[in-house]
Amino acid sequence: MDSQSYLPVPPGVGMEENFLSLDDILLSHERLPSRTECLFPRLGYLEKTSDSQDIMEGTKMELPLWLAKGLYERKRRVVSVELPKVYREGWRTVFSADPTVVDLHKMGPYYYGLGSQMLHFDSPENPEIAQALLQTFIGRFRRTMDSSQNAYNEDTSALVDRLDCLERVLFRMGQSGLNSFQGWEKGRASHLTTSALVLNYRKRKMADLQA
Amino acid sequence: MDPSEVEFLAEKEVVKIIPNFSLDKIYLIGGDLGPFNPGLPVDVPVWLALNLKQRQKCRILPPEWMDVDKLEDVREMERKEESFTPPPSPYYMELTKLLLNHASDNIPKADEIRTLVKDIWDTRIAKLRLSADSFISQQEAHAKLDNLTLMEINTTRSFLLDSLNCMFKLRSNMQPGSGTGKALDY
C-alpha cells in the first residue's frame, strides 16, 4: 500500500553509522556542547564571540557531532565533549522511573542514535548510558507496539508525536502490517492496484533524452 | 509477506466437495484429482473447489472444524490457556474467509462461525502481543512459536524483527570494544 519505489537505508543505531542513511546524516548534525583543549591557531574567524585571531584553549562552543567525532582523540586531547542533558544522571533517573512519559521527539529526536554515538567519547558514564538506552527502548516498546497495531484508519499524529525517530520507523512497520491485514480481511487485497514504481514513474521527455 | 500470498498458500488445503457433473480423473502436477461423479464426495484443493463453486458445479462440504460447537470449545480453550492452543487448522483464518465469502450458502450458521473465528483470532493476537512484550522486556534470546499460524506471524513479523534488530544493536553497545576498533580509523 505505502510501499516505496526505493529502499531507504535504515539508520545504523549502534556505534557505527550507516553512510547512506538519511537519518544518520541528520543525526551527525546534532550539536554537542564541547570545550577546546588546545590552541587552534588562525581559526578565530570561526568563533564569532571573540575578536582574537586564534581559538583559545578552553573555549566552550557547540560542535556538530561529525566534527566532534573527527577531532576527538583519546591520546592527544584536542577537544573534550560534554554529555548532552538527556544522557546525564538526572535525566537517566527520569527514564528509569517511567520511560513512557518522556517526549523523546522533543528530547531527541535521535535519542537512541545520538546516545550510541556518545559512546565514542570515552566518558566514565558510558556503561550507564548504554544501559539506560536499552532500558528506555524496552520500557517504551509495549506502547509503541500497542499503539501501532491498534490504530486502524485513524489519525496517528498524536500517537507518533512523542516517539523518537527510530520508534517512528517501527511504528510505521507495525502500521503497514496492520493495514495490509485489514485490507486483506476487507477483500481489498483481491483488487489489482498499480505498483508504486509505475505510479511514481514519469515519462521522460524527448528533450531530456536528446540533451 | 503480503496477506494475499498467505491466502494463496492456504488455497492448497484440501476440502470435500459434492460435484454435480461427471468427469474423469484429471492429472495435475500437484497430484491427481477426481474422478468426479454427481453426488459422490471427492477431495479437491480449495482453489478448485471455489472455482467449481463459482460456476455452480459443486457443493462444498465445510471442513470438520468449521462447526459452531467445535469452534466454541476452541474459543473457550484459547481463553483459558495461557499459551497458544493448537489452532483448528493451520489456515483457519484464510479458509474461513475464503469459504464464507464464496460458499456461505453451503455452510450452516455461517455468521456465527465468522464471529467465532474472529473471536479466536482476536484472543490469539492479544496473546501474541503479550508474549512479544514479555519477550522484549526479559531480553530473551529465542522464542518458540508453537501453534502459531502463518497469518498470525505475518501480521507482526516486520515490526517484531525490526524491534529485535534495534534492541540487539543497543545491547551490543554495552559490550565495550565491539564497535570502537573501527571507529578509530577517522
Automatic annotation (TrEMBL), chain B:
<dbReference type="Pfam" id="PF25005">
    <property type="entry name" value="PSF2_N"/>
</dbReference>
<dbReference type="InterPro" id="IPR056784">
    <property type="entry name" value="PSF2_N"/>
</dbReference>
<dbReference type="GO" id="GO:0000727">
    <property type="term" value="P:double-strand break repair via break-induced replication"/>
</dbReference>
<comment type="similarity">
    <text>Belongs to the GINS2/PSF2 family.</text>
</comment>
<feature type="domain" description="DNA replication complex GINS protein PSF2 N-terminal">
    <location>
        <begin position="2"/>
        <end position="61"/>
    </location>
</feature>
<dbReference type="InterPro" id="IPR007257">
    <property type="entry name" value="GINS_Psf2"/>
</dbReference>
<comment type="function">
    <text>Required for correct functioning of the GINS complex, a complex that plays an essential role in the initiation of DNA replication, and progression of DNA replication forks. GINS complex is a core component of CDC45-MCM-GINS (CMG) helicase, the molecular machine that unwinds template DNA during replication, and around which the replisome is built.</text>
</comment>
<dbReference type="InterPro" id="IPR036224">
    <property type="entry name" value="GINS_bundle-like_dom_sf"/>
</dbReference>
<keyword id="KW-0539">Nucleus</keyword>
<dbReference type="GO" id="GO:0006260">
    <property type="term" value="P:DNA replication"/>
</dbReference>
<dbReference type="InterPro" id="IPR021151">
    <property type="entry name" value="GINS_A"/>
</dbReference>
<dbReference type="Pfam" id="PF05916">
    <property type="entry name" value="Sld5"/>
</dbReference>
<feature type="domain" description="GINS subunit">
    <location>
        <begin position="65"/>
        <end position="162"/>
    </location>
</feature>
<protein>
    <recommendedName>
        <fullName>DNA replication complex GINS protein PSF2</fullName>
    </recommendedName>
</protein>
<keyword id="KW-0235">DNA replication</keyword>
<comment type="subunit">
    <text>Component of the GINS complex.</text>
</comment>
<dbReference type="GO" id="GO:0071162">
    <property type="term" value="C:CMG complex"/>
</dbReference>
<dbReference type="GO" id="GO:0000811">
    <property type="term" value="C:GINS complex"/>
</dbReference>
